[in-house]
Specification:
- The protein has 2 domains: 174 residues, Rossmann fold (3-Layer(aba) Sandwich), CATH 3.40.50.720; 84 residues, 6-phosphogluconate dehydrogenase C-terminal like domain (6-phosphogluconate dehydrogenase C-terminal fold, Orthogonal Bundle), CATH 1.10.3660.
- 52% of the residues lie in helices and 12% in strands.
- The strands form 2 sheets. A 6-stranded parallel beta sheet has the order 3-2-1-4-5-6, covered by helices on one side. Strands 7-8-9 form a 3-stranded mixed beta sheet, with helices on one face.
- Helix 3 runs parallel beside helix 4.
- The structure holds NADP nicotinamide-adenine-dinucleotide phosphate.
- The site of NADP nicotinamide-adenine-dinucleotide phosphate (NAP) has 29 residues, from helix 1, helix 3 and strand 7.
Length: 297
């Protein structure tokens, strides 16, 4: 009988634990899976077993059965420590992947730590998430109908890319591939910048002396726009410092456009406001349609 595929998840927060729950639930068509998990916080791996996230908790990475796949689901700046921890496993792995929201920094860290990029390494990033963190936030359907971006490297073994693709497809993700550089540019614009704006606006308003009064009267627009400001500060600290160049580039472009709007308001330039808002509405309507179509497929 074929041995199960042994998958080790390192970091059992929202993303790692959701992946574990989902892959245990869905399995792979051609082979059974056995999911092990490790977290630096004591008791989290045992809690993950109780929550149905894992088959087995790992308390010491020095004592492991043969592992086939490692999923690094830790904040971007913790990747270096994880690479040091799993160095003895690397020679026998079929695939190594991560879920970090920034890809360039993760690839640089792996190369710096190992002096090379191992053929089993296939960086990845699920375009799904939530403001909650930790093992108790795990959801088996978190990745269903969501994109999973893989950024295979010239060094990546095609068999490793195929295996990681199969695992994410098995849990309902729509796997796409792009370069590391393109990933970091696209995500700076569509995810990192909006989070920065939400954090900044909520902070500005919260520091006003009468902030309770302001929040009391805030309506749906503020609620929708500010939702992502409840995201994990450590994770976002890591993301902005790791994707500096791409974020600064899009932030400066946005600041220039914002200044144009500021001047239009100051000089009663209604035509300009009308033009910008109409263009933005049409782009948002198209996006809404795209999302609806993705949900249908
Ligand atoms: P999370 O809920 O905070 O979980 C991370 C877990 O990893 C925590 O339990 C943390 O322990 C543990 N950890 C940290 N360093 C470790 C180490 N060296 N060894 C073992 N465990 C370690 O974070 P998350 O939201 O799942 O995010 C994980 C990764 O997914 C990040 O790289 C993030 O960029 C990416 N991502 C997140 C989202 C999202 O919406 N949340 C979406 C897409 C991608 P402590 O609690 O002790 O720190």
């Amino acid at each position: 009988m074929t041995q199960p595929l042994n998958i080790l998840i390192i970091g059992l927060g929202l993303i790692g634990a959701s992946f574990g729950k989902a892959i245990r639930h869905q399995g792979l068509a051609e082979r059974s899976v056995f999911v092990l998990g490790y977290d630096r916080s004591q008791g989290v791996a045992e809690q993950a077993v109780a929550l149905g996230v894992l088959d087995q908790a790992v308390s010491d990475l020095a004592w492991l059965p043969k592992i086939d796949v490692v999923v690094m689901a830790v904040p971007v700046m913790a990747i270096g420590t994880v690479i040091d921890d799993i160095r003895p496993l690397l020679g026998s792995l079929q695939a190594l992947t991560d879920v970090g929201s920034v890809k360039g920094q993760v690839v640089r860290t792996v190369r710096e730590r190992l002096g090379t990029l191992p053929a089993c390494f296939v960086p990845g990033h699920p375009i799904a998430g939530a403001e909650q963190s930790g093992v108790t936030a795990a959801k088996a359907d978190l990745f269903e109908h969501h994109m999973h971006i893989l950024t295979p490297l010239p060094e990546s073994d095609p068999a490793a890319v195929q295996l990681i693709t199969q695992l994410w497809q098995a849990i309902g993700a729509d796997v796409v591939e792009m370069s590391v550089e393109r990933h970091d540019e696209v995500l700076a614009a569509t995810s990192h910048l909006p989070h920065l704006l939400a954090f900044s606006l909520v902070d500005t308003l919260a520091r006003e002396s009468e902030n309770r009064e302001i929040f009391k009267y805030a309506a749906g627009g503020f609620r929708d726009f500010s939702r992502i400001a409840a995201s994990d500060p450590t994770m976002w600290h890591d993301i902005f410092l790791s994707n500096k160049d791409a974020t600064l580039k899009v932030l400066r472009r946005f600041q220039a456009d914002l200044t144009i709007l500021e001047q239009a308001i100051e000089h009663d330039d209604g035509d300009l406001l009308q033009t910008v808002f109409t263009r933005a509405k049409s782009a948002r309507d198209q996006f809404t349609q795209m999302l609806a179509e993705r949900q249908k497929n």
